[in-house]
Amino acid sequence: MLDQVHAACRDDTSGAPADYIPELAAVAPDSFGLCLATADGLVYQVGDTDIAFSIQSISKPFTYALALADRGIDEVARHIDVEPSGEPFNEISLEPDTQRPSNPMINSGAITATSLITGRDAEDKFERVRRCYSRFAGRELTMDKAVYESESRTGYRNRAIGYMLRSVGVIDVDPDDVVDRYFRQCSIEITCADLAVMAATLADNGVNPKTRERALSTSLTERVLSVMTTCGMYNAAGDWVTTVGLPAKSGVGGGIIAVLPGQLGISVYSPRLDGHGNSVRGVAACRELSKRLELHFCHVTRSARTAIRADYTVAQMPSRLRRTTDDAEVLAAHGERARVYELHGDLLFSGAERAVRAIEGRTAELDALVIDLRRVGEVSRVARDMLEQLQSELVGRGTRVALVDPDAKLGHEVSSLDPDDPRGRVFIDRDTATEWCEDIVLHKHRPPGARPPTSIELAQHPLMAGLDPDYRRRLCAECETRTVARGEVLAERGSPRSGLYLILDGRVRMTFPGTDGRAHRLVTLSSGMSFGEVPMLVREPFVNTVVAETRVRVAVLSPSVFDSLTDDDPRMKLALLQRLAAGAYAQMDMTVRTISANAENY
Amino acid sequence: MLDQVHAACRDDTSGAPADYIPELAAVAPDSFGLCLATADGLVYQVGDTDIAFSIQSISKPFTYALALADRGIDEVARHIDVEPSGEPFNEISLEPDTQRPSNPMINSGAITATSLITGRDAEDKFERVRRCYSRFAGRELTMDKAVYESESRTGYRNRAIGYMLRSVGVIDVDPDDVVDRYFRQCSIEITCADLAVMAATLADNGVNPKTRERALSTSLTERVLSVMTTCGMYNAAGDWVTTVGLPAKSGVGGGIIAVLPGQLGISVYSPRLDGHGNSVRGVAACRELSKRLELHFCHVTRSARTAIRADYTVAQMPSRLRRTTDDAEVLAAHGERARVYELHGDLLFSGAERAVRAIEGRTAELDALVIDLRRVGEVSRVARDMLEQLQSELVGRGTRVALVDPDAKLGHEVSSLDPDDPRGRVFIDRDTATEWCEDIVLHKHRPPGARPPTSIELAQHPLMAGLDPDYRRRLCAECETRTVARGEVLAERGSPRSGLYLILDGRVRMTFPGTDGRAHRLVTLSSGMSFGEVPMLVREPFVNTVVAETRVRVAVLSPSVFDSLTDDDPRMKLALLQRLAAGAYAQMDMTVRTISANAENY
C-alpha cells in the first residue's frame, strides 16, 4: 500500500526546494521517501528513506518537548501560548494582549522554547537538545555543519525575532546565543526513516518503540501532540485536521511527520515545497495514506471492549490441584462464587471502567476473585486508583481478591500477610491464585462436619476401603509405607514403573518440562489419591515427574507383587482394577463437567 | 469520581444565564447536572441531569452532520469551510478570499448548514432535523415553543446573517425560512442525560450506544469531531485542545458536550455563562474530569496490542476429533504447520497490520490456518481489504485458510466449494475449522502408505489385535455386530451401561447438554476406538450421549458377558483390561503433550 501511495504521488514535480540558503537548494529535488512506523517499532519504507537532510522546523515539537520537561508546563506557558496564529511561520509578531508567541510551532515560539532549555553552558544546552532528538530517533544524530554555517550567515530574520523576543522580555538571555542554538538544532541531520521512528515515539505515548527507552512522559507527549494538532501545519489547520486527521509537523528541509496516537507514525521526505513551505508530495502522501488506511484520530477502536480478555468461574476452569470427590462436589455447586478476570492491553479510564463495572456487578455473588494483569500493558494512574478502590470495596464486603501481577503493575511487589489487607493477595501465576480462591470457597461452603483432606491410614484409602475385608487386609499387608521429604522426587519422567502409589498424607505434584526449561505443574494430588497406575498396567515408563510438595507419606505396591497377582489371585487383582476404574470414572466425570461449563465460551 | 467533580465545581456561582431572550433567563441559574456515558451506553450521572433546556448551539454539529449526510462532504465544503475563525460566534462576516463562513460552529456556518438540509417542504426539513437529533439522543425530542417564539421575535442578528449569506449566494433559498428553521432547531429541548448519549454516539463512530441505531456514518462522524476539535469551543481552541483534549461544543442554554472518540461522551448543564458564552461550571467540570480521568484524545491505548487475543498451533489445542494413534503422532510432529489466530476488538488499520504481519511471518511454516473473527467488532474497509489480500496471497502460496465468521464480518455468507477460492473456507465454529486444518496437515504429512482410518474387521481392532489369538477368537465370538444409521443415538446420558463398544466403521460423537440447551461435542471417535468402558467397569450410567455422526458399524460386548468373565475366565478379563489401560495410556500421553504445549501460555 505504501508502494502504491508512493507511486501515486511521485509524478507531482511541482514546487521547488527551499533556497534561502544554498545548502538547502543543493539537494536532489526529486528525492522521495515514505515511511510508516508501527507502535511496536517496525518501519515500513519505500523510496529515498535513508538520504540525510536537515530537520529544520520538524525540530520544533521536540525542542518544545524538552523545554516542557526542563521547565514544566506552567513556566513554559508563561513564555509561549498554544493558539494557532493564522500568520506565516516566520512572522515577527506576538499576541497583542499577552505579548507571547502564539505557539511553539512558529519561529518566535520555537526560538523561545530553545531559550528555555537548561544546561551548564551553551555547548551543554545544545548537547542536551541533540541527545533528546536522538532518544526519539533511537540512534545518535549529528549536526550538518555546512547547513548550520549557511543558516548562521544568512539568518537575519530569525535574529530579528530573537531581538524582538528579548526586547519584550519573553526571553531573558543573550538572543544571539539562543538564535545560534536554534540554527544548530535546525541543522541536525535526519533521514526519513529516523523521522518515522520519532513520530512513532510520539504515537507510543513517548516511548521509543525500537529502543523501548522513554523519550518523554505521557502527559507531555499529549501536550506536544495537541499543539501539533492545532498549529503543526501552519495555515489551514482545520482542513488538515478534517482531511488528514493526524497531528503533524513539516520542515523546509522537505520532511513531514504525522502521528496517529497509540498507533503509528508516518514520515515523508520530498524537498519540493508549496507556497506554505510544506513538502508538496509530503502533503499529498499524508492525505493519500490517511484516506487509504483510514487513519484519523477521531476514528479509533472502542478499546474498552477488549479490556476483559476472558472471565470465567473456578468451576469452569479449576486450578491444577486435584480435589477430593467431596471437595469437587462443593466446587461444582459453589464454584461460581469465585471468578477469574483476565485483563488485556493498556488500561486507561474506559478499559478500567468496563472491568470494574463487570466485577462490581457480580460482587454480591462472589466470595473471591482473581484479577490477572499479566497481559496488561500501561496502567494509567486513574485505572490504578479505580482498581485499588474496587479492591478495598470488595474486601470491605467480604470478597477476597487475588492479583496475578508478577511485574507489579499495580505497584505491590509482595503480598501482605494481613488477610484483610485491602490490596488483596499478589500471585505470580494464575493457577496458584485460582487454587487460593477455591480454598476460600471450600472453607465457606463445605457442609458442616466435612473436613479438608488430612492424614489417613492405608485401610481408609478409597482404593482399599471399597474392597471386601479379606482382599483389603491382604493387599495392605503387601504394601510398603514410605515417608518422603518435601521437594524429593518420587518418580522421574521416563523412569520405569516403580509401583502403585497410594497417598496417605501430604501432597505430590506431577510436573512436565516446558520448552521454557521450567517444570510446569500438571496436577497436585493429596491424601486419598493415587498415582503410577497406568505405568504399572502397561509396563511403560512414567510420563510425568512426581515431586513431594510437602512431607509425604505413601504406601507402595511394588511391580513384582502387582504382576504376580495375575497368577496368584486374578480375582483380587480384578477387584483392585475395578477400584482404580472407579477413581478414573469420578475423574472423568469431573473433567466432562469442566469442559461442558467451558464449551459455551469455546 | 463524578460526584467529586460535581462537588468541586458546584461552588462557583460566577457568570449569569443568557438573557437575550426572556425564556433563557427564566431558568434556575444554579442548576448543575453532569453525565458521563460510556461507549456501551451506560450513563453515569449526578445532579440536575433531567431538567429540560434548549439545545441552542449544541445543535450545530448535529445539523452539520445531517447536511453532510444529505449533500456529501464536497458540496457542503463549497458552502462552509472548516477553519477556526478567531472571531465571536455571532460575527456577521465571511472568509475574505472564499466568501464562505469559516466553519459550521459559528452562526453563519450553522445557518448555512441548516439551509442545506433536504426535504419536501419547510415542515419536512425541520422534521428531518428533529428526527436526526432524536436518533443521536435515543428518544423522541420535541421543540420548546416558548423559546422558539422568543428567539423568532428577537433574532435580528441571525436574520442579518441570513440576508448577508443570501446576498453573497452562500445560501440560495429564502433566508427568512432558513433562519426560522435555525430558531426551531436551537429550541429543541434536551436534558443533560440526552446530551451525554448524543456525545457517546459521536464517540461510538456514529452508532447510538443505547439503541444500537446508526445515527451517522463513521467517516462523517470523523469530520464532525474534527470540526468540533478545532472550532467547537470558539476562541482558545488551542488551550482547550491542550488542557481538556476532547472535541466539544457548548450552547448558550448552559450545556456542553465533550467526546473522547471510541470511549465516552461527557455532558454538563449549568446555565451561568462566561464572557465567551460557555457554561462556567461546564468548562470547569470538563477540565476537571479530563484531568482526573486522564482523558485526552492523544493519550489512547495501543490497540494493536490486543488485536490478537490468542494464537496457537493445532498441536497445542487440537480439535475434538480424537485421532488414531498414528494420526496423533503425525499431528504431534507436524501440528505446528497449522495455527489458530483469534482476533479481538474493532479491527482498524493498526490492528489488522499487526495480525497480518503475525500471520505472514509464519506463512512459510504453515499448511493451513484458522482466523477466528467471532470476537471482532467493527471491521474497517482497509482491514477487510488487508485480510482479503492476505488470504489470496496465502492461497497462492498453498496455505489454506479457514475463517470462523458466523456473522459474515468479512462479507462471505457461505463457503465457496472451490478449494482454491482465495477467500478460503468459512465456518461457524472454531472446532470444525480446526479439524479441517488438521485434515490438511494429515493429508500432507502422513508417511507414505499410511491411510486415514477406514473400515476394519473386529479382529483388526486394536483392543483385539493385541490379545493372544485364543483370547481374541473367543472374545470376538462373544461380540454382537450392529449397524447404526447416521444421527441415531447409541447411548443416552444417564442411561445404564449397555456394553463395551468397539467402532469398526464410521464416526460417533459424544456430546453433553450445554446450559444453552444445545448439545456440545466432547469428542468424536472413529474406527479402531471404543467407548462405554468406564460405565461397564464401574456399573455407572453413561455420562455422555453418544450419537452416530455417519453410518456406523460397532461390535458390542454385552454387560452380562463382560461380568461373567470375572468368574469364567479372570485371566482373559485381565488381558482385556490391560488392553483398555494401554489405550488410556496413549490417550493420557497425548493429553499431557497438549497441556504441556499450552502451559507456557497459561
Automatic annotation (TrEMBL), chains A, B:
UniProt domain Cyclic nucleotide-binding: residue ranges: 463-565
Q: Does the keyword Acetylation apply?
A: yes
Q: Which InterPro entries match?
A: Beta-lactam/transpept-like, cNMP-bd_dom, cNMP-bd_dom_sf, Glutaminase, RmlC-like_jellyroll, STAS_dom, STAS_dom_sf
GO molecular function annotation: glutaminase activity
Which spans are transmembrane here?
none
Which positions fall inside the STAS domain?
Answer: 340-410
- Which keywords label this protein? Acetylation, Hydrolase
Classify the source by domain of life: Bacteria
Similarity comment text for this entry: Belongs to the glutaminase family.
Q: How does it assemble?
A: Homotetramer.
The record ties this protein, via NCBIfam families, to: Gln_ase
Under what name is this protein listed?
Answer: Glutaminase
Organism lineage reads as: Bacteria, Bacillati, Actinomycetota, Actinomycetes, Mycobacteriales
